[in-house]
Amino acid sequence: MTDQISRSGSVPFLAVEDLKVHFPTPDGVVKAVDGVTFTLERGQTLGIVGESGSGKSVSSSAILGLHRGTSAQVSGRILLEGTDLLSLDEETMRRHRGRNVAMIFQDPLSSMHPYYTVGNQIQEAYRVHHPEASKKVARQRTIDILGRVGIPQPDRRVDDYPHQFSGGMRQRAMIAMGLVNDPGLLIADEPTTALDVTVQAQILDLLQDLQREFDSAIIMITHDLGVVAEMADDVLVMYAGKGVEHGPTKELLTHPEMPYTWGLLSSVPDVTADTSAKLIPIPGSPPSLLNPPSGCSFHPRCAFTEKVGSNLCRTEVPLLLPSARNPEHLKRCHLANPDEIYEAEILPEIAPDLVEDK
Length: 358
Hints:
Oligomer: single chain
Helix content: 25-40%
Strand order of the largest sheet: 6-7-8-3-9-10-12-11
Shape: globular
Radius of gyration: 22 Å
Number of strands: 12
Strand content: 15-25%
Largest sheet: 8 strands, mixed
């Protein structure tokens, strides 16, 4: 059964339907992404969160067709303005990649070629999709976009090499490369991980400004729930290759209904707490995607399986279903009253001040 997350009857800008990305190995099939579904409109931001290995980057790489030519088995549908990207031949997909959908990779230093100037690499990305443009036009376009992303003296820095840029400037250059063709969809894979908090805030403000200017749809892949709270309109929580919770950002962060999401929120340090306060980590480790647990994939680490009873968590995979309090909020969990449990047992641990205010 395909989990349906679309909230509108109209055709969305991006619709990912029952996406599966499996990798055959000598030991078996690794189900890196196993039936993910979501939609995204222009001008909106979707935050995808989860531990390392949950399938965040693999699913986004599938949108760009980066698994082509590998052993990966990709199925489902990825509809961009109604066109199924998975059905396109490689040449047609190349015309989409960079022009209609682009990606900001996690490490700009390893993503940019050290032997070519930053300007040459951005110009190449532009001329691939604008073969009629002269070198002079492409260079001016590159200078303009470098200026737009906040590179000082872009007419001079356009001839610098990646190692001559600071970490924050390299990330801005990667954003410029992603935006040089005005793509409708921009995928940002941990774009602020290696940056200090001041530069991180500048990069996030820049992405929001450019989104308003270009009306781009953004997929923000991150471990930082603070980034999600600031930028995302909707949040998709992934675990073991599946979407386990999805909904509007404020609703999901204030009334989470999946124990895994509770664990992510509990793991965030409280800056107002006593310095001796301990973090509340999620016990155990993420499961093997080669041999995932039966039933709910989170049940070996979940402290609430006994509240379900009948051994249901260990034997039956829960569907992604609407919450009782909000039909736009979906959760993959067998718990019948997660909101009550969260307020009674989790919230006092992670936000005692909120409980006292009530």
